[in-house]
Amino acid sequence: MIIDAHCDVLLKLWSEKVSFATSNRLQINELMWRRSPVKVQCFAIFIPEEIPEEFQFQAALEMVNIFFDQIIKPYDDIKFISNKNDLLLLKEHERGAVLTLEGCHAIGRDLNKLKTLIRLGVRAVGLTWNNANAVCDGIGEKRGAGISSFGEEVIELLNKEQIWTDVSHISYNGFFDVMKHADYVMASHSNAFSICDHRRNLDDQQIQLLIEKKGWIGVTFVPQFTSKKATVTHEDLIEHIIYYLNIGAENCLGFGSDFDGIEEYIKGLEDITDYQVVMNELEYRISNEQLKKITYLNFINKFPRIKG
């Protein structure tokens, strides 16, 4: 059993008008999901930066509709996950789907828009993407500013609503601001900087703060975040997992593949069914208790909203 905290299926369903049920242009479709060991999948709302600002919230609402119309409603055994109790009540034959937001660009400076998305089911909120918005700068913004005053209001709302604040993509200064203000923190898809020095990865200081904050970290399948080698393999991904475990992240670690958000793949990890490759390798490298924690227990234990 695996819980995956990040994919961009909704973006492809929205932009390419393909079918979740059968499309072979997806790394996660309904058929592949059922053949994989993934029990719960998080689906991100991500608005491409080329979408005009005045249309971004509408695009987010359209993706919410796609989530319910194509992923939840057609299948009796795929359940919408709103809280920790929903996770715990999943039956053996059932799968769960969580709605998340990757970047607050769609809300502009309107907190009511974020409240609406939370009421519609969003349970983890990435404050920004690589660029800047009204909440914070992203890791790709040269200015590198931290959380704005409006950003502090956003985090206050997330704390009140028991929603994860996601620091993947955020600026370096923004990360430390989040640590000061957020009660529930995750890095949904970020690898270890000490293994691969990409700007999107977490350095040791950031990792230790996430551990102290009782946060959650998702190892991601983005090749550029995994290794500088010409050909990146699943062994390179395992190296990040072992590193995280060795520096004390055993109770914080999980997976955030970023499937359907990447165009280049780790060799052998090209769609959701390939999770079994990682599982098979980890069974020989770590204890059974550690395996259970990073595949699903840590995510469940740290899910902020208990019910409702």
UniProtKB/TrEMBL annotation:
Gene3D superfamilies: Metal-dependent hydrolases
InterPro entries, A to Z: Metal_Hydrolase, Pept_M19
Family matches, as Pfam families: Peptidase_M19
Example of a GO MF term: metallodipeptidase activity
Tree of life domain: Bacteria
Biological process per Gene Ontology, one example term: proteolysis
PANTHER family, A to Z: DIPEPTIDASE, MICROSOMAL DIPEPTIDASE
Protein name (record): Diguanylate cyclase
Species for this entry: Paraliobacillus quinghaiensis
